[in-house]
Write a structure and sequence with these properties.
By secondary structure, the protein is of the alpha/beta class. The protein has 11 helices and 10 strands. It binds 5'-O-[(R)-(carboxyoxy)(hydroxy)phosphoryl]adenosine and zinc ion (ZN).
Length: 332
């Protein structure tokens, strides 16, 4: 079965064709980062307008790259939520109309479940069950994935998402948007232990996160010290990143031990941070826990993961009706 996946929940317009839920025939991502960069974050109205412009060419490119015809498509899947409503509506309504016109089954996919499925597209991929961290600009959620359709939410952030913290710290340092890649690059040159930023672990036994204390602590440090040179900024970046990585890694390992599960997967934009993946792999390895992370192309928002999740939903008969709508907040 070949499924067309469409993603438009935030600032990427993406389309992909996936065969049998696990073979990527094509995956095209049109990023709007250059536009939003100048405003220091995503501007929802601009995002919607740009999705409208990009969606047609992105889908055509996905068809061309896969070298297939529209008539070869067996099903359609699009992100239904969570995300920016105006942005979601573009991809979701396009997919709905396409599926209706072509008389194809249509699945409305939860974006977070799709990020979990990006691990099932990864080679090698973790066997079930596994612990999965979905860590992006909007979410920091730990799930216990016990079957292809069961995602038990074990913990989540109580304030900022980890990616949001990267973006806000980058903004404080005058490094622009998005913050993650530039912080990771600068951090490489410095000793992460130099500035002892806090590691907020919350109550004993909790798998929740909080990054607002860390963010305030970085703001205080920047206020109290001269951080005008690239060198000073790199030091703050390294120590901030280390604090985030420590908390994410420790909570994940605790969750794995709590569930007696020797496999951890990470997905979402922040999992593109290879320093995080390497640190987690080392720490978990010493406890006989294996770590899985998608290639960078599948970490951030993409449509291959939407098509993969959508394939399963279509197989299970979990289809969207024409009167179904998008949603902005998470349902898992
Ligand atoms: O999954 P994603 O592309 O979009 C959302 O659904 O939010 O994630 C974007 C987030 C941004 O906050 C960005 O700063 C962060 O992922 N990010 C990173 C890295 N690359 C992207 N954070 C840390 N290190 C990176 N290398
Ligand atoms: Zn995402």
């Amino acid at each position: 079965m070949i499924v067309l996946g469409i993603e438009s929940s935030c600032d990427e317009t993406a389309a992909a064709l996936v065969k049998d839920g696990n073979v990527i025939l094509s995956s095209v991502v049109a990023s709007q980062i250059d536009t939003h960069h100048q405003y220091g974050g995503v501007v929802p109205e601009l995002a919607s307008r740009m999705h409208i412009e990009a969606i047609d060419p992105v889908i055509c490119q996905a068809l061309q790259q896969a070298d297939i015809d529209i008539t070869d498509i067996d099903g359609v899947a699009a992100t239904r939520g969570p995300g920016l409503i105006g942005a979601l509506l573009v991809g979701f309504n396009f997919a709905k109309a396409f599926a209706w016109a072509a008389k194809l089954p249509f699945a409305g996919v939860n974006h977070l479940e799709a990020h979990i499925y990006s691990l099932l597209l990864t080679r090698p991929h973790p066997d079930l069950p596994f612990i999965c961290l979905v860590v992006s600009g909007g979410h920091t959620n730990i799930y216990y994935v016990s079957s292809p359709d069961q995602f038990e939410l074990m913990g989540q952030t109580r304030d900022d998402a980890a990616g949001e913290a990267f973006d806000k710290v980058a903004k404080m340092l005058g490094l622009g948007y998005p913050g993650g890649p530039v912080i990771e690059r600068l951090a490489r040159t410095k000793d992460p232990a130099k500035i002892p930023f806090p590691r907020t672990m919350l109550e004993k036994g909790s798998f929740d996160f909080s990054f607002s204390g860390l963010k305030s602590s970085v703001a205080r440090h920047i206020h109290d010290h001269d951080i005008s040179t690239e060198d000073d900024k790199a030091q703050v970046a390294a120590s901030f990143q280390a604090a985030v990585i420590d908390v994410l890694s420790d909570k994940l390992i605790r969750a794995a031990r709590f569930k007696n599960c020797p496999r951890i997967g990470v997905s979402g934009g922040v999992s593109a941070n290879r320093t995080f993946v390497e640190t987690l792999t080392r720490k978990a390895g010493s406890k006989q826990i294996s770590v899985f992370a998608p290639p960078v192309s599948l970490c951030g928002d993409n449509a291959a993961m939407i098509a993969a999740r959508g394939t399963r939903m279509i197989e299970q008969g979990e289809l969207c009706r024409l009167d179904h709508d998008v949603f902005s907040r998470t349902r898992i």
